[in-house]
Design a protein that fits this description.
This protein is elongated. The protein has four helices and eleven strands. It starts with a helix and ends with a strand. A hairpin with a 4-residue loop joins strand 3 and strand 4. Helices cover 26% and strands 51% of the residues. By secondary structure, the chain is α+β, with helices and mostly antiparallel strands. The chain has helices spanning 2-39, 56-62, 118-123, 183-191; strands at 46-51, 64-79, 82-99, 104-116, 130-135, 138-147, 150-163, 167-172, 193-196, 203-211, 214-227. InterPro entries: DUF2993. This is DUF2993 domain-containing protein.
Length: 228
């Protein structure tokens, strides 16, 4: 009985040590993975990486990770010839193959969501108009135009859609013309716009959904390259 007790204690101690070593290795790779996103040209205020799966050491030895969860905040993404700030980006990378000497990786698939505030969307519009939540999955866009010496300020309800897998389009459902010739075109020149959005190489924009907290963008991709 005493020998059995000693063996059980040793098993618990060794098991705890292995778990600790496994977790240390995972922490190291999580740090390296944060570097992959930076090297891919993604500039952000903070990046958190969580490597899933246990034991991790077997994944590390094969240089294949089952799942890597990435959360980034304050991303500066390209929006055409401008920058747009993405407040939050949460992405799940699956079937990740490490390339080189842990300097990069390639994910078999990726899926996630990004959150863009209406203030940041306004800044990227280049239309001298403000964008706000309009309720019922719509946005409100307010802009001013000059017609016959008068300044007209109009707020329109607009639909936001994803176009060609990489572009956000904002277009007014209806523009009140008030019988003034050409006023609709003038207002649309202020309120309607499109912005290409490049959040992460290899990912596409699947859907955009206006919510009270901001514009939620659903993204996905296959064979996504992360530096290396």
């Amino acid at each position: 009985m005493r020998a059995l007790r000693i063996l059980l204690i040793l098993a618990v101690v060794l098991g705890g040590a292995l778990v600790g070593i496994d977790r240390l290795a995972a922490s190291y790779v999580e740090s390296e993975a944060a570097g992959w996103t930076k090297a891919s040209g993604v500039r952000s205020e903070s990046i958190e990486v969580d490597v899933k799966g246990f034991p991790f050491l077997t994944q590390a030895a094969a240089k294949r990770l089952d799942e890597v969860d990435v959360r980034a905040t304050g991303i500066q993404a390209r929006a055409g010839d401008r920058q747009i700030r993405v407040g939050e980006l949460d992405v799940v990378l699956r079937d990740v193959t490490v390339t080189g000497d842990w300097t990069g990786a390639r994910a078999g698939s990726a899926a996630g969501t990004a959150l863009i505030s209406y203030a940041d969307l306004t800044a990227a519009s280049e239309r001298e108009a403000t964008v706000a939540y309009g309720g019922d999955g719509k946005v409100k866009v307010t802009g001013s135009v000059k017609v016959l010496g008068r300044t007209l300020t109009r707020t329109v309800v607009s639909t936001v859609t994803a176009v060609n897998g990489d572009t956000i389009r904002v277009r007014a459902d209806e523009v009140p013309g008030e019988g003034i010739p050409g006023v609709e075109d003038l207002v649309r020149a202020r309120t309607d716009f499109e912005r290409p959005l490049h959040v992460l190489a290899g990912m596409r924009v699947d859907k955009v959904e206006p919510r009270p907290e901001g514009l939620v963008v659903t993204v996905s991709g296959k064979d996504v390259s992360l530096a290396g």
